[in-house]
Amino acid sequence: MTQRTAIIGGTGVYQLPGVEVERRVVETPYGEALVFLGLGEAQDLVFLPRHGPDHTLPPHRINYRANLKALHLLGVRRVMAAFAVGSLQPDIPPRSLVALDQFLDFTHGREATFFEGGEAGLVHVEVTEPYCPALRARFLELAAAGGVAVQPQGTYVCTNGPRFESAAEVRMYAQLGGDVVGMTGLPEVVLARELRMHYAGVALSINWGAGIQGALEIEQGLEARRAAMLRIFIETLRSPPLGACPCEGAGFVMHPPAEGRP
Ligand code: HPA
């Protein structure tokens, strides 16, 4: 099967500049997923805007399992995922790019695993290091070479949304160690790990967390930041990852134990 790579776009990322694509609906056991297959030079690249191309899907209605399974069925093994987030810490102001290395999951009611028991089995997947450190290292190296400032690590707090947070919630998330807050990072990253894919996440802050500076205000004029991020995503996916990572040999605890799954 062709080895492909993918970019998952969040709020504000509905196409890839300079990349010709073809629309494709992929059937999976979890439902349909809409993706855009790269053409020409980009034929190994798949683009998936997680809110849909017209941003019609709220975070809790996104079919994360269909999306990740569709990418896997297409032969995708490496993913760069973009997130719009709010800033929780004073040293990460809006407009910052953050290469994520940890998460705090506050979502509920989402289909969060491929292993629902029965035929599918039961798996406790290891996510000590949930984002691929080798892909992140390559992204950071290429960002530095391209003169694009990126915070090298950050903890992503995932709320269920679609509402924003109260000021007290933002204070709590910051105290718990969160750096940025968004609504779509989970269960995407965990599903990618269940499929043993290499998955890195990069957040672009578009506002201060609620209450940090009064009323929540969304930054405008972020097109150049987004374009720079996407350019480095493409460069990252075109070059080999840097260093070792836990993604493919992820420590799965299975019940009953089974060789060679999934
Ligand atoms: N909170 C949650 N999700 C977000 C925010 C926020 O402040 N900004 C962008 N996505």
Descriptive account of the structure:
This protein has 262 residues and is of the alpha/beta class. It has one domain (5-255): Rossmann fold. It contains five helices and twelve strands. It has helices at 64-73, 133-145, 167-175, 188-194, 223-238; strands at 4-9, 21-28, 31-38, 45-49, 76-87, 97-99, 102-105, 122-125, 155-158, 180-182, 198-208, 252-255. The strands form two sheets. Strands 1, 2, 3, 4, 5, 6, 7, 9, 10 and 11 form a ten-stranded mixed beta sheet that branches. β9, α3 and β10 form a beta-alpha-beta unit. The longest helix has 16 residues, at 223-238. The protein is globular, with a radius of gyration of 18 Å. The model has no long low-confidence stretch (mean pLDDT 94). It binds hypoxanthine. Hypoxanthine binds next to β5, β10 and β11. Hypoxanthine (HPA) binds next to β5, β10 and β11.
What is the string of helix and strand elements? Answer: EEEEHEEEEHEHEHEHE
Number of strands: 12
Q: Runs with pLDDT <50, length 5+? A: none
Q: What is the count of helical runs?
A: 5
Structural class: alpha/beta
Please, how many domains?
A: 1
For this structure, what is the CATH class? Alpha Beta
Overall pLDDT confidence: 94
Helix coverage percent of residues? 10-25%
CATH topology value: Rossmann fold
CATH hierarchy: architecture: 3-Layer(aba) Sandwich
Write down the overall geometry: globular
Q: State Rg.
A: 18 Å
User: Approximately how much beta-strand content do the residues carry?
Assistant: 25-35%
Name of the CATH superfamily: Nucleoside phosphorylase domain
Q: N- to C-terminal separation?
A: 17 Å
What's the main sheet like? Answer: 10 strands, mixed
Bound molecules: hypoxanthine
